Amino acid sequence: MELPNDPAILLSVLNTKLRDFYPSLDALCSDLSADRDALISKCRSIGYEYSEKLNQFI
To answer: 25-32 and 7-20 helices cross at what angle (nearest 10)?
Structure first.
C-alpha cells in the first residue's frame, strides 16, 4: 500500500492502521516497507509525535 504524501491525511491513515491492525509503528513500517523516520518527520511537521505507550500519533 502506498501511504499518502499529505501530512494530515497520512496522520489519519497511520493512526487508523495503528489502532486497527498494528501493535507498533515498527510493525507497521516493516509490513508496509515504510521509512519510520520519514513518517515521524512528516507527522512532526504538523505538530504530532508518536507515542509508543499509546501506539498513536498525538
So the answer is: 110
Rg (CA), the chain: 10
The answer to whether residues 17 and 28 touch, using CB atoms and an 8 Å cutoff, is yes
Of 31, 53, 18, 22, give the one whose Cα is nearest residue 43.
18
3-state SS class at 54: coil
Angle between helices 36-44 and 7-20 (to 10 degrees): 120
Asked whether the CA dihedral 50, 51, 54, 58 is positive or negative, the reply is negative
- 12-35, pLDDT tens digit by residue? 999 999 999 999 999 999 999 999
pTM equals: 0.95
